[in-house]
Amino acid sequence: MIRIGVPARIGGLLSLAFAALGFAPGTSAWAKTSVQPPVLTASAMAVADSFSADAAERILREGGNAVDAAVAVAFTLAVTYPEAGNIGGGGFMTLYVNGKPYFMDYRERAPLAATKTMYLDQNGNVIKGMSLFGMRAVGVPGTVEGMWEVQKRFGKLKWKQVLAPAIRYARDGFEVSDQLQQRRDDAAKDFGDKTNFGQYFGGLQAGTTFKQPDLAMALTRIADQGAKGFYEGRTAEAIATAMKARGGLITKEDLREYKAVWRQPVEADWNGFRVITAPPPSSGGIGLVQLLKMKADSKPAFAGVTLNSPQYIHLVAEIEKRVFADRAQYLGDPDFYRVPVAQLIDDTYLAKRAAEVDREKPSDTKAVQPGLGTSMPEKAETTHFSIIDKWGNAVSNTYTVNGYFGSGEVVDGTGILLNDEMDDFSAKPGVANMFGVVGSDANAIEPKKRPLSSMTPTILTKDGKVAMVIGTPGGSRIFTSIFQVMTDVYDFGMPLPEAVAAMRFHHQLLPPNTIFWEPYKPIEGELAQALEAKGYVLKGQDFNGDIQAIEVNGNKPEAAADPRGRGVTRIVP
Fold this sequence. Notes:
The protein is built from 18 helices and 21 strands. It is α+β, with helices and mostly antiparallel strands. Helix 4 runs antiparallel to helix 7 (213-225), helix 11 crosses helix 15 (347-355) and helix 11 crosses helix 16 (478-490).
C-alpha cells in the first residue's frame, strides 16, 4: 500500500525522508561494514517530489541502502528540479553509517586562474552581477565526485543502478509543474541575454513533457565511467570549451584536479543528544551548535518566556547577533585558513558569549565583536533531502547551484547547468554578497579554495541510534531555521510536523537590529508593535527555509515535509 499526500500550499524546495523498509539486506556490498545497527520496524515514509520519491523507492526495493537512495535522489533532482538540484554545483553530506559519523565535502572550488580581485573594477569597487551571472561566476563543480565517493564507500548497489532513474527522466522527460515554469520565468528576467539559459530552458512549459537528451547522454557517460565521465573525456572537454568561449576560467586541469574531501564532522552534546553536523567550509554546523548551547546557557533568561513572544524573539536575536559576528570573522575553507572550531564551540567560551546578551533591549551592533578577540544572507535556492534506512543508516544532504538555475549557463551539448557559487566568496572584505552577508579575508577568493557556506545537514543520535535527520535550504537562514525546529521539538515538546510548520524568524547582525519575517507566518499586529517598541526593524522576506526532517522515537520514525514547500508523503509497508 502507498499513501500519498500533497501539501495544500505548493512552493519551496524538496526533500526525501525514508525509514525502515523491511527489505532483506543484500549480500554483496554490505560486506563493507561488519556490525549492523538495530533494525527499525516501522513502515517506510517518503516526503519528496514524486520523481525523486519514485527513484528512491525503486533503489530501496532493489536492496539499496540510505546512501544508494541518496545518490539516486541527487541525480534525479538534477533532471527534474533543475533550479536547485544539480550535477553542476556542489554541497555537503552528513552520514551516519554502521553507527559511525562521517562528512563529505563536495563543495565547489575556485578555478586555478581565480584571483582575489577578479570581481573588482580598476577603482577597487565590486562589479555588480559579475559573480552572479555567466561563466565567470562558476566554481568547479563537486556533486558528481562527491556522490561517486560516498556510493563507492558505502553503497550496496552498482553505480549504474543508482543513476538509472535520472537517465530515464532526462531521456523520456517529466511533466513540468506550474512552479518550475514560474521559477524559470523569474530567472530568465535576471539572465536576460547575458547567458544561454533561454536556448536550453526556453521551451519549458507547465503541463508539458520536458526532455533533456543531451543531459541523458552526459549522465550515461557518468554511469559508464564513474566520476571520470564528468571530470575527464568528452564532458570535461565540453565544459572547458564553453568556458573559454564565454569568458569563464575553468579548464580541463581544474576538472581533473577536483577532489571531494572526507572531513571530520562537528560534534557536540546537547539536551541528551549527540549533534553531528557540518564542519568548515560550512559555517552552519558551528553556528547551529553555538545557537543551541548559548540558548541552553541562557536558561534563566528564557525561564517562563513564551515561544515566539516578543521577549523570546529578542533573546534569540541577541544570540544570533553574536553567532554572525563570529561567522564573519573566523570562518572559511579549513584547507586555507586555520578555523578555530574547538574554541568556537567550547562550553566556557559560549557561556561567556551568552552572558553578554542584553535581556531588555538590542545590543549596540557596533559593540558586538567577534568573541575570540578580533574583529552575510545567502541565496535560498538550495535543496535538501534526508534519508534513514532499515539498518539505521542515515544521510542528510544539502546541495546547491547557489541562485535559482545558478549562473544561467548551460554547457553546450551536455545539458549541464552550472552554478554561480563564486558569489559565496567575499569579493571584497566587508562588502555584502547577494544574501546581504559580509565576510573577511578568511573567505577571500584564492585558487582551489572552497567558499564559505551556511548549509547545515545535521543528524542527531541518542544512545548510538539516529534520533533526527534534518536540514533545509535557505542561505544564511539555514542554521537559524534548523535551530528553531530543533528547540521547538526538544525544548517545547512540539510534535515534529507542528514544529516544522511553526513561525520562523531570522537576525544576522547586519542590517543592524533587523528581524526578518516570512510570508508563511508573518510577524504582524501586536507582536510586530512590541518588537518595534524594543527597537527592532521588521523586514519581510520571500523565503525562510524548507525544513525536511525525520524524527525517530524508539523504533517509531516520523517524517515531516515543510508546508512551505512542495512534496508528497508516502508510506510503503
